[in-house]
Amino acid sequence: MLRSLVGSEMCIRDRCGTPRQGMLLHAGRASIDLLPSVSPAALDGLEEYTHCWVVWVFHKNNNAQRPAQIRDRGKNGHGDRWLGIPAKISPPCHPDPKRKVGMFACRTPHRYNPIGLSLGKIVAVDRGKKQVLLSGLDLVEGTPVLDIKPYVRHFDAQPEAGCAS
Question: What pTM was computed for the model?
Fold first, then answer.
């Protein structure tokens, strides 16, 4: 069972207009506040890092109600759609606007499981307030945050990694 560990205040109030990648939003700030049930000791050492991964839920995604709607209509998801979510998508920045790729080969918010992963720049860690202030996040106000993990360059950076052109 997954549960939100924190409350969040983001500079983005609505999902419409959210940047495609958080690092495009340099000036925006996000406050992630630990819930009362989470010990402030969980933040110890985080201030030694410059960036962290934030694991979160696409809570404003309109796919959230699709499984029940699709089941109610008797569609079982065979073929190119599973619970109403397309398996192939036209990525917005692809050089060929007619090209479709598999959902797992792009960063669409419309996913089988509405879980997001964003890299944020740590601006401040306040153990007393049980708060992490970040910049560069593409999260909407009230986003349930499941976890915060430090970005560790020698594990996370992959200089030989390739991507589609």
Answer: 0.75
